[in-house]
Amino acid sequence: MRPFLAALLFAALLPGRAIAEDTPLVPMFTESVDSGVSHTFAGEWEFMVGGGVAVFDCDGNGLQDMLIAGGENPSSLYRNVSTEGGPLKFAPVEGGPQPDKTSGAYPIDIDSDGQMDLVVLRVGANRVLRGLGDCRFEDAGKKWAFVGGDAWSTAFSATWEKGAAWPTLAIGNYIDRAEEFSPWGSCTDNWLHRPDAGGAGRFAPPVPLVPSHCALSILFTDWNRSGTPSLRVSNDREYYEGGQEQMWHIPPGAPPVLYGKDEGWQPLKIWGMGIASADIDANGYPDYFLTSMADNKLQVLAEPGKGAKPVYKDEAFRRGATAHRPYTGGEFKPSTAWHAQFDDVNNDGFVDLFVAKGNVSAMPDFAMKDPNNLLLQRPDGIFTEAGDKAGVASLSTARGAALADFNADGLLDLVVVNRNAPTQVWRNDGPGQHWVQLTLRQSGPNRDVIGGWIELRTGDRVQTREITSGGGHAGGQAGWWHFGLGDATGSEVRVLWPDGTEGDWQPLGPDDRYILSPGQVPVRWVDR
Ligand SMILES: [Ca+2]
Ligand SMILES: [Ca+2]
Ligand SMILES: [Ca+2]
Ligand SMILES: [Ca+2]
Fold it and tell me: How far, in Å, from the CA of 139 to the mean position of ligand 2?
């Protein structure tokens, strides 16, 4: 090598190495303008919120398909026709369900038959669609005795209560839409759809959760590892009177009870729009990112441990995750945040945070050009903005979103649903490090193991993930759980099953997809 070139390379390498220790690898996302997704979530007042996307596999080929809410447009079901590692390609499902007036949708295998079903949130009666395979669905409202109601529904979560053979669905409802001109204080009740005690495979009449404060995101989560999940509700202070953020005890077989001040619950008022959860400080307890207008929260349990009180510290500022103003696009007014998701986009073993951003419609005190965030987590737990460098800083008015590996190459791709503007899809072109993707499966009820926990160990570090259904903004995922391994070429995994059984630690090879089932060794997806 010529000395000059060698010196140049040496000079280039030195700072690069120093940076590599402190700064996360920035993955490059390329917008897939020819992905075949041609969809717009559209609408005025009744669709100022919503715009969710359900990400799940409707034809059993291991590639994640999606149903995107349409608002005043029909919703769109897309089959993922990508090839492994190839361009992202989607094809509309001919004759697929196209429910109208949809705000969002979530996948869940309600009847545990191995076909993913859908809960479709609407402005009007909600619907349950039973999966029949090959991306076909039938309306199961009657069969499952599901009461759709007539509310403006905006939020969803599901759990399997202890011993139940049928899930409990929680649906969050927003404003009374008949009150368009003075809607303040007109929040409609959220509903809990529990199993019908008298008959298998049916829901009981819904139980109203009183009081309700205009929910935009809800999540069943076992915040204190008690074995019984609670229901977190994030509420929009714009429309409630006397409201606050909420968490409900959901004791099996007994009525829901709100957490109160006597238990340590601290009143908090935000423009709650979305909930993301992950164990970011690796203490085994989930932490929560709550999206809002300007003032996003990153809640970390103050004193984790047995008998913990529901007292949370807001670490958004300390961890660099406030994401409260645009960082590009030229505007300095506060941001408006919607869907949020923790996931590891560069596979370094530390979950990152995507936040979808966009003005409600024309709120003059908030930024109109409001870029989405991609906050990369450093090993010291501090997040740094990389949305612009990564290429996902779209200034469209985003609402719902999903990070998901659509082409099964081990790099999480991205879909963002904008309001009154086209849905956007990006392929993650890396660089990334080693990874594994896991799907949990058990026989009998709750086939997809909601309420279980995955522990993944590399060296002396354990990543913990609660298997949840719900949260986000108006959309969610089922199927694959993604873990970055950093430079580790192997890992060990164990599952804590919802019945309390602790699985054995089992070795996994890197860069592969596995199915984990109780009492069995991991099965590679390709060997299934
Ligand atoms: Ca598929
Ligand atoms: Ca099913
Ligand atoms: Ca990461
Ligand atoms: Ca990918």
Answer: 12
